[in-house]
Amino acid sequence: DAGVTQSPTHLIKTRGQQVTLRCSPKSGHDTVSWYQQALGQGPQFIFQYYEEEERQRGNFPDRFSGHQFPNYSSELNVNALLLGDSALYLCASSLGTGIGYTFGSGTRLTVV
Amino acid sequence: SQKIEQNSEALNIQEGKTATLTCNYTNYSPAYLQWYRQDPGRGPVFLLLIRENEKEKRKERLKVTFDTTLKQSLFHITASQPADSATYLCAPRNQAGTALIFGKGTTLSVSS
Lengths: 112, 112
Prior knowledge:
The structure holds two protein chains of two kinds.
Chain A: E1 5-7, E2 10-13, E3 19-24, E4 31-37, E5 44-50, E6 53-57, E7 64-68, E8 74-78, E9 87-94, E10 102-103, E11 107-111
Parallel strand pairs in A: 2-11
Antiparallel strand pairs in A: 1-3, 3-8, 4-5, 4-9, 5-6, 7-8, 9-10, 9-11
Chain B: E1 3-6, E2 10-14, E3 19-26, E4 32-38, E5 45-51, E6 56-59, E7 62-67, E8 72-77, E9 86-93, E10 106-111
Parallel strand pairs in B: 2-10
Antiparallel strand pairs in B: 1-3, 3-8, 4-5, 4-9, 6-7, 7-8, 9-10
């Protein structure tokens, strides 16, 4: 039973560029949440997708957008990258309004 | 605004001792509270959940208490081992379906 899969594992981008991160949820899960974790900080909630729609959003600018596909996988897009966007991006999946989240190992994004 | 505070960023203890981590929250009325463990460069892993009507929950060497009057949860690891060294995150949740919001975490270091 595969857990949450994220790709790529590492990524280096230049300021101003755009990036797309991908997430495949755990088998049987239909809800995907994205988090940004800067070094030494707790995960910060970006947004959550359920039934292909953004259900809830954290305090992130519109440069951060996402998508959920019919197979429940999800993408996180970040436009006009800033140095401050450098972080570990975590995807978590759950079943509906389920309680426990299963996290992937994350994508380490470095903006130079 | 909602706030989650976890005690001192780092906690250093000797092997065999009990580690106690604190999670205080404000402007929440959590239906339950979750604790996660995170190792460096990895995603958080769910450990325990305690509901508002439960005072205490145990799982092997782990014990969690929940005091809704004090707005506080305590997380105990008894007979600590070096393998318990990690960052521990708490996440109070008002109701199922709302996004999981994390505290900054407490980094525990157990020395042999």
